[in-house]
Design goal:
The chain has 173 residues and is an alpha+beta fold. It contains 2 helices and 10 strands. It has helices at 2-8, 11-32, and strands spanning 37-44, 51-60, 66-77, 84-98, 103-110, 115-118, 123-124, 130-139, 143-150, 163-170.
């Protein structure tokens, strides 16, 4: 028994154990250092009136980077306590990031059945207005919309671990 224990503490075995420990530590560090955030920014209670629902959004991801923009979505429910919600337009404006470089990714309308994707890749967050018209109807179940932001000074080409998902939720009273 003592001979087996003594053999385990030989230099070649200690080096192997140390390398295994360091490899495990580095792999764990990679998985736990990613920063993908999903932030619920606002909750809206739509009715049968067609109107824009919007809010100012801001955040950070990459160290020393902050972004902000305004997002509004034009939608109308099928009644005052809607079971479906029809989307007509999404607009972003008054955007800024410091340092510059943060970019929009996908915009999604998400419900229990399916996802609706609008392609917003390589759109830098800046002061200009970006508007997309649509005609999409979604069930009011677990309905939310999501804007993906690549919060990195290099935008989409930067570190993919600094992705933020800014969400609006839609529900009935």
């Amino acid at each position: 028994m003592m001979k087996t224990i003594r053999n385990e503490f030989r230099m070649k075995n200690l080096v192997a154990y140390m390398l295994a420990f360091l490899t495990t530590f580095l792999i764990a560090g990679i998985f736990y250092s990613t920063n993908a955030y999903a932030d619920l920014q606002s909750i809206f209670y739509p009715n049968s009136t067609k109107k824009a629902y919007g809010d100012a959004l801001n955040g950070s991801g990459y160290p020393n980077l902050a972004y902000s923009y305004w997002r509004s979505e034009t939608a109308q429910g099928n009644s005052n306590t809607p079971t479906t919600l029809r989307f007509f337009n999404v607009t972003t404006s008054n955007g800024a990031s410091n340092p510059t470089g943060a970019q929009f990714g996908l915009y999604k309308i998400v419900d229990l059945r399916e996802k609706r994707f609008l392609d917003w890749y390589t759109r830098t967050i800046n002061g200009t207005q970006i508007s997309v018209n649509m005609d999409y109807t979604a069930n009011m179940g677990s309905l939310y919309t999501e804007m993906t932001v690549y919060a990195d000074p290099s935008g989409l080409d930067g570190a993919q671990m600094n992705v933020r998902y800014d969400r609006f939720a839609y529900t009935t009273n």
